[in-house]
Here is the input.
Amino acid sequence: MGTTKGLGSPIQMNPPPYNRGTSCTAAEGGDQRDTTFVKYGSPFTMDRLFIGLDPTDSGITAIELIENRPVSFVLKVKIHDRDIKLDRLRPTCHRYLANLKEAFVCHESLLFIYERWDGVSLKGIQELRPTFELGEVEVATICCQILHGLHYIHNTLGISHGAISEQNIYIDDNGDVRIGRIGESMIRGLIHGGEAMDISATLKIARKLLGLQGTSGGRGTVGLLAHDFTAAPRGVTIEQLLQSSRRSSSARSKTLPPQGPSVLPDYSDDPDDDTEEDLADVPLDYGRGLKTKRRGERIEQRWHKYCRVKAAEPDTSPKWNDPSKALEEMTPNDVHRFFNYCGKLRWGIDGRRLKGINKASALYAEWKSFQGYYRRVTRQSIRKEDREEINAGLRKLIDKWNLDQDEREKTPVYVQDLTEFNETTLRTQEKRFHVGYERIQLCLFTMLGIFTVNRLQALLSLQFEHLRFSIQRDPLGGPPIPLVEIRSKHVKKYMGTAQHNNFPLPEIIDDPSLIFSPHVFLFGILFWLQAFEASNLTSMEGLRRLLVEKGWQQMELPLKADIAERYIFCMTREVRGEFVIQWNEPMKESTMSGRLKSLGQIHGWLHSFFAHRFRYGGGKMLNKSTVVSEAEQNLIMKHANIRTFLDHYLPRDIDVDMQNIMNGRDQNTALMGAITRISRWIDKRRPRKLDPQQRESLREHPEYLEAVQLRNQQEKAYKKDASSQNLARLRRLQRNLSGTAINDEEAKEVLRTEDQMSPERIDLIESLFSWPTSPSLEEEWKRRNAATRAVSQYCPVPEGGPLRGRPKRSIPSDGFGNESQVSHKRGASKDSQPIVRLSSRELLLREAEEHIRAAEKPQRCFQCFGNRSLPDNRRTQEWTKHKSTLRHFRKKHLDDLKCNFCEEVLLHEMHLRNHAATVHRLIT
Here is the structure.
């Protein structure tokens, strides 16, 4: 080892001469292109003999038997999700390759027919160790032949193999190497750095065959030379590894710098470079948004379908048989006809009816997706001249189909609108949820949406770990201020580092409205979940007592680890008959959008309410603010420049008072703001469930005319009765003094009986619908603490789920048509007892209980009625048939071990069935 040695001494044997005519009909170095090499269709349907094999064993699909000719092997490759350039495929001719003879395109597969090879793979030889081991000379011969084959692949075929491994290298009966799967290499083409990857894989095979590990030098001098070969430096070429021993030392020194044993680099500890990975398998849209990928997949599917349609036409061009080739050879006319075809499609996947293209912007969006698909397949953009022709064709299609060219309506929403919207969300009984937390979620969503102007997906992806809670020292010397910081991580991104905005939201103590206070709702949710790491921090009163230590600016309030991973806006699912909040499942965009839309209709807005209106209104306020620069606005809204806001976000309703400005007077800012808000068109009386014909006939309906007449009579009587007006004024004055909207018991009774609200819901509304009654800071803290406590108490309250069908008419309170009520009143009068007027809720519960006790075939469930945690509509639900009640009981209650109605503990299912049959007449 004292002398300078060249790389690859064991490989310096010249390969034995071979007869190239044994397996090839042309010169090795010649171009083997054949215009008829790639055929369409299946070879199995031709007049040829094949025997099928299980491809899981050897990867071979079938063997072809031809009389007086060698056997051929058939390998199948799926191509349905890959872009194939068929012009890369050609026959091969080399001694050390499993030569490719034919290729067939069949459906979504490529069938490669190789010349036969007999022998065993290097992996099979390696599995024989230690019974059988190859020596250094045998390994050197194998590596030499592999390198000769790679030299042909790199220089003659102009590709890289990309999958050199023990599984794809075979030793035939003559002892020669056969490199397999060259057809799949042609599909991949020349990969950047692929030649170096092939050489590195060959050296790795040599190390495995020799059993070299770490810095081991092998057996004897030849072993040391073998180790030097396998530790060749990076960047070495095949020519350098195949250098002949007849070259002089001077020539060898020019090829590679001499390295003595003391400075010879050791690469034995290099990490694995994952040579199995192939960039051809990584799509160009990797890392892009999910919606972008879906649009790309849709346009690709339509192009493939269009190509099949064109290929079926008579006298069509052969390019339509291959969608990728058709895309490469497309003309502007082809693209124009394709979009004309897409615009006429009426049915999609699984026979679903397509929405169709109704707006010009939708057509241009399809054109944008098509350009992206073209770049993915061809690795280049459409020429500028072709784009101009295609754009002219799109304008022609817009006029031809009379597409809507108007911009999307961009009426913004502001805090004033959303405050009233939250009031409706908390009050309405037209929209009902499974648990109270779902209603709280909606109110919180509107606040975070307008205060962060984030997109819908970014808001729904928020987890508690993205929120930071602390109390901050007041620079003005006041009490500590609770602070909520929102860090938006799920934003639009593509390559590079995503910028995460941090939105600090300090508590505004002088804000009179609690309905739009994110601190009230967020802390209410956290105290309900007992989310803080400090176990004794369970209320706002405890948080108000915290103080920031001297010398510090803040005191952080960490959350528990299991709480941090939960989603703030999550789904609710039915589990074993009960609705459970799924904290680990974020709410779907369609679910949130549907709830916003329906509640916007209930609120009376004319325009449809969707989450992007937060960005319209918030962006407009940022743009008009004198303290927010243009750069800060772009940072907050995640825009590259102000042009994005001007083109897609700025509302087109001008809120500038042009008349006063042109006359030299100050503009009426309040009026212009009011007429450009979404609440300008609010009308809570607008019908939601009537069609135009029903609306026309409504005014002629006898009940409607009777109601109008009764209203007019009551209006006249009210105007004549001064005492009723004074009583109304007195009530308004009392509410103002008390600071709550529903302080009187009569209003609470209406909510409890007619609206059938739970006590927790009434307490929530009473606490949130309040206003300051004292300038004292302590009194304001009490008001906010009570609201936070009401939010915590209402989160787990079950509401009964969404209303089904038409809303039920309220039960008449005068007892008309109800014999039990009439008899009760008569009995009360006989005993000269004061008449107790029962509410509609109490009457409903009494009727249900009497039915369960007395009905021969009950149509109400005794288990549901006895469960007081359920809402009233679930407890008193009545089925149309007795069989339906039995079906419900079998499905929901056979696992119960207690009778909720009798409060009797049961031992097992048969005990429950016997109890239901003997006591409640439900024979299951």
Observations:
- The first strand starts at residue 38 and ends at 40.
- Confidence is low (pLDDT under 50) at residues 1-23, 25-35, 244-264, 805-833.
- Residues 843-918 form one domain.
- The CA atoms of residues 813 and 838 lie 8 Å apart.
